[in-house]
Write a structure and sequence with these properties.
Blueprint lengths: L1 E3 L6 E3 L28 H5 L16 H18 L2 H4 L4 H18 L6 H16 L5 H5 L5 E6 L2 E6 L2 E4 L7 H12 L12 E5 L5 E5 L9 E5 L8 H7 L4 H12 L4 E5 L5 H9 L8 E5 L11 E5 L13 H8 L6 E4 L6 H10 L6 E5 L3 H13 L7 H11 L2 E7 L5 E13 L2 E15 L5 E7 L7 H6 L21
Parallel strand pairs: 9-13, 9-14, 10-11, 10-12, 12-13
Antiparallel strand pairs: 1-2, 3-4, 3-8, 4-5, 6-7, 7-8, 14-15, 15-16, 16-17
Helix pairs in contact: 2-4, 4-5, 11-12, 12-14, 13-14
Length: 490
């Protein structure tokens, strides 16, 4: 006996009221329409003494009484609602029905509360029943890019690349665990003492990671990396200063000419966002196969097949790795293969795909520089236990990868493309590269913001010949140096 939440697959089971603790109050809830009482109900309310308005920032009821009231009404909601009818409703219609039922239930309670407090309780209990409780206001806030729950009263968010502590909180650690289970259960994943770590996603594609005791010593830890409801475009990245129009022009030509690319960067540097922007340049006539763990990318093309890894079950069986999916993708007649992130032995299969007719493939990797990215790929190929000599691996890398985009999150929180580097080939046993575009910092303004831009180095990329053979003509001055000397990255 379940109903679906407005965030997708999250479900409220018929016995979930046992031991259930509703969300603690939060000042961050978004405003909702006041709920009017039915004509037959005000008489009972008017016989009571008018409630005293709570002090600013406080409650009419003590916190323990408020939590008790919320729990009581939440349990009544689960018992009395006609769940079969609710399953036929979706989105705003479902929430409106639940809020209406909650308004009536709160009016029937003997505990005196103000109208404003009643409205807030309706919102909070509805968030708990239909969504992720105290996190709902943060998930709805477009300025929040990441949510980090370090404990019941330690909820941090990232805004504009900077972290801050919020006044959102959970009642206790059990409350955090219930929200985590609400996220992972519909996906067929589990989290318990035997498997205390899990990666998952929300219905909108937002990435979720959870780790619980005994690995997390103090409290269950939940991290949510939000994805924009409207995917960022190349124009957005230009407006943010992440890159320039010249870089976008070059990258778009590379995608159309089927140049193999690797997007490198640290955690939170914007690799997935950049991969989404690059994939938007892929022609709609092509068949795209993606391999991710978990699924995060957002596509506008009609012919996309999305594959996702699967963890082992409770018996340790049934695991499906990225390497297995990459091998399977090769049999699916893809025009392009996109791997969300290479982490281990699948790097070898990805290189094989790039070298065997699947030009224009894309992937991401954690690395601090373009040279580090190649070194990490070498190490990952060695993890495949193929016993290949290093020179053979480097030859594969130099042949398969044509371009590396290096992203960094700078100390002011901004995310920038710092290098667009071309892989040229091999000299002796060393892979040679050259920078096509490099970020140049000019200084820091009064607000601590970094001043700088990405500019061409003056070197003409070797891949320009392939781009021109595809009938794509770039402006002759696209790679002309602007304000600093040319240089190469070796």
């Amino acid at each position: 006996m379940t109903w679906l939440s407005r965030r997708g697959d999250t479900a409220l089971s018929g016995n979930s009221h046992q031991g259930s603790d509703p969300a603690s109050p939060s000042a961050n809830h978004s405003t909702t329409r006041p709920i009017e009482a039915k004509p037959s109900e005000p008489a009972a309310i008017l016989t009571e003494k008018p409630p005293v308005a709570p002090p600013e920032g406080g409650h009419l009821l003590p916190p323990d009484q408020l939590n008790e009231l919320k729990q009581r009404v939440h349990e009544q909601l689960v018992r009395e609602l006609d769940l079969d009818k609710l399953q036929q409703k979706r989105g705003p219609e479902l929430r409106k029905a639940v809020e209406g039922a909650l308004a009536v239930m709160l009016l029937d309670q003997e505990t005196p509360i103000s109208r404003a407090e009643r409205q807030r309780l309706v919102r909070e209990i509805a968030d708990e029943a239909l969504g992720l409780g105290p996190l709902e206001p943060l998930l709805d806030d477009p300025t929040v890019s990441e949510i980090m729950v370090n404990g019941p009263r330690k909820v941090y968010v990232e805004r504009n690349g900077l972290l801050s502590l919020t006044d959102v909180y959970f009642r206790d650690e059990t409350h955090i665990m219930r929200i985590i289970e609400k996220i992972v259960s519909p996906l067929g994943r589990r989290i318990d003492e035997a498997s205390p770590m899990v990666d998952a996603r929300l219905a909108d594609g937002s990435r979720v990671n959870a780790i619980i005791p005994p690995l997390a010593v103090d409290s269950p830890i939940l991290t949510i990396r939000k994805f924009s409801k409207d995917p960022l475009t190349a124009a957005d990245l230009i407006r943010f200063g992440s890159l320039s129009e010249e870089v976008i022009t070059f990258l778009k030509a590379c995608i159309e000419a089927r140049i193999n690319m690797v997007v490198a960067g640290g955690t939170g540097s914007g690799k997935t966002t950049m991969l989404n922007v690059l994939s938007s340049f892929i022609p709609h006539r092509e068949r795209i196969v993606t391999i991710e763990d978990p699924v995060e990318m957002q596509f506008r093309q009609p012919h996309v097949i999305r594959l996702e890894t699967r963890p082992a079950n409770i018996e340790g069986k049934g695991e499906v790795t990225q390497r297995q999916l990459v091998r399977n993708a090769l049999r699916m007649r893809p025009d392009r293969i996109i791997v969300g992130e290479v982490r281990s032995g699948e790097a070898f299969d990805m290189l094989q795909a790039m070298n065997t007719g699947h030009d224009g493939s894309l992937t991401t990797i954690h690395a601090n520089t373009p040279r580090d990215a190649l070194a990490r790929i070498e190490n990952m190929v060695l993890m495949a236990n193929l016993d290949l000599p290093v020179k053979a691996i480097r030859e594969q890398v130099a042949s398969a990868i044509h371009l590396i985009l290096q992203l960094s999150r700078l100390r002011d929180g901004s995310r920038r493309v710092t290098h667009v580097t071309e892989v040229i080939g091999m000299e002796s046993e060393v892979i040679t590269m050259q920078d096509i575009f490099v970020f140049r910092q000019q200084g820091v303004d009064a607000n601590g913001k970094i001043i700088g831009s990405i500019q061409p180095t003056g070197l003409r990329p070797h891949c320009i010949d392939k781009i021109e053979r595809e009938g794509i003509n770039l402006p002759p001055d696209l790679f002309a140096p602007r304000s600093f000397d040319r240089g190469s990255y070796r």
